[in-house]
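Co-fold these.
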Amino acid sequence: MKKEITGEESAAMKAQRRKNFIARYGSLIALVLMVIIISLIKPRFVSFINLRNMFRLASINGLLAVGMTFVCLTGGIDLSVGAVMGCAGMYSAYFAQESMGQPAIVAVLVGVAMGLVIGIFNGVCVAYLKVPAFVGTLGSMSIAKSLTYLLTDAKPIPKLTESFKFIGGGMVGGVLPIPIIIFAVILAVCFLLLYKTRYGRYVFAVGGNANAARVSGINTKRIIASVYVLSGVLSALAGVITSARVTSGVTNTGEGYETDAIAMVVIGGTSLAGGKGRLWGTIVGIMLMICLTNGLDMLGVGAYYQMMVKGFVVILAVMLDSLSSD
Amino acid sequence: MRREVLRMERVTCISQGRETLNNFNFQLFEGEVMGLVPLDSYGLDEFIDCMCNNRQLLYGRIYIRERLVNTYAVRPRTKNNVYSILKDENLIQGLPAADNVFLIREGYKGFFIDDALIQKQLKRLFGEVGMDISIKKKVKELTVLEKYMIEIIKAAVGKADVVILRDVGSSLHPEEMEKLERVVRYYADRGLSFVYISTRTEELAQLCDRASLMSRGRIIKILEHDRIRENLEDHYFFPYQLLKENESGIREEGQKIFRCENVWHNSIQNMSFDVEKGECLLIHNYNDLDWNDFLTLLSGEKPQKGRIWWEGRKKKNAKRDIAIILENPAETMLFSQMSYEDNLCLHLDHRIGSLWWSRNKRKSIVREIAGRDISGRVKDLPLREKYELVYNKIMLQNPRIIFCMFPYRNVDVKTRQLTNSFLQKYLAAGIAVVIITLDMRDGAAIADRILLFGKNQSRMIFGKEEFEKIVLNDSESDRVKSTKEQKENDKK
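Predicted complex below.
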């Protein structure tokens, strides 16, 4: 009898370990496999130019996804990131027009300030006024869109200063694009914030067990509000970079980006219920989505089919993740 | 001849690699109230899971009404008609009692609902058990006792084979317990069978026809009704009673560190009490106070009226000096997705600098406290280690005062003993402990003062010795009374 139990026990433990491994590294393995397969079919996929373009694109989506990771870790969701991105991009472009004669830093600060204000609004709504995150950020998405359209009656803003355009299109040493450097710096800061500071542990704690966190003396409201502020600021920064990259303010910038950001976070293994997730997982999620889009483009798969493939990838990622919690 | 309702034969289960039920044998007859006394936490959840959901067995068979419902060979995907009552989790709070009893149940096939008819039927059922509960009220507006009664009625209406009552007595006052007993007896007489899980001798002796003692996943003894009290006290709880000595030696008399002065806040009405440094205060509440309101005050919310003082000053931000241990801390106080070390060190940053930069520091703390490296997620730990983690975490935090919410509710004897030993450690370290309880006997052994909140804002305070005298007198007179009754019965 004893032997039987030990056998069953070790088999069960092995199965659990296997599940945990798949849940933890499934996305990474999928990413590596995808890169290998696409590069075998289309060797151009791993060319320096293509990789640089992918990373540049990833840096913009990545800013949204990193902010979203913080929000999701507290058990919340931020649907306004795309709209904030558009709004901040438009307002910074407005101040970056040659006719305004303002230095680029003013335009950047205005854009980031827009994100900060909307982030604070979201944080207050969700944390202090107890509006469900889904509804609160849906509302602010609409407000941000409205602010975007009101600025120029939905007309694009052309003729931006060269110094502002350098933020999105410039390169260091003629090789490394500025957006990638900005993203790398932001990512490093967020890594430190999440894994090496008390604040990071509190973010996990609030998402994992809000009541325990509250009675443990953690100011849960402040922590929840802060992640929305962070998300707003990072979304705004993404908007500023996008405007600088496309060299004009466009009203529909950021449309649909919120769903991509959520997908990247979920693929990375962050639980929408909060308390569980990892930032490196989000990076894998970002790269997986970007590589998938780029690879499917190269393989000539139509845009409508691509949406379907992305949908299946997200579902598969969540299924793999739920395996470990069974 | 009595008809058998449930039989569990040599049931063996494993959970997370551990044998939780081990050759478990259990038998229950129609109309019987069987007590189940968990001397440790082994297998209790699995026992309930087996009964309700036909959990997968490693070995053994389960029969309900002489029909094989689960066996190690085949795992059926069906649920049994067993109703488990733990708090009020089975009721939908926003609906009235009649909807909960008649509509929210498996197998209900009605389409149109005649509210008047179901309310009339429920009223009749209430009348049968001698209850007077407002039919119109939503469940959330009812008292705990009323919710339990509705659950029992719901189980009876659903023709449950067995009703499991899990430590319901810990949420009830003695007079409410009598009312519950009436309802249980009424349905037991009509053939409904109950399993009453508790570690309280009084309740078991009052309510149960027999009591089974469970230890390390086995039934080790079955006690007949008249043997429950003396056997439990003298043979099985005796080792734990020895540990009930109060060791709080370094208390500095008269130094008040916490004061609640005429506080009004939602359900709190004119609450006043103070706590001295290093003392153990037991608070027992007889009115309809929601302690969550008190927790919100401790978490920093301002009271609607009155004041909270902290060491002679108005309480502003004493977050690391005040610790709260919630009810069922293994579930409610841990961050299950975080690691052991993160959980343990979460409240330590005010004592150790750069804690989150150095994993080695955190690891060495874990080694020192737990005696070994513990990896993996906290949710996979055994129950005892979870409890130890919570209590050690609080110890490391080194607060000045700890509020312990219902620490003895729904726990086995071992956990009760563990809780007591940690509370005594806190007291020995000069930390004041406030125990909030619904049963005065819980924690009375280590309390220095006992504070009772009654109806209409009344309150009483006893010293330890004064309280012991009252309790002793009561139990003495009870014992004399029961011996007299026994003698008279013998003569007859």
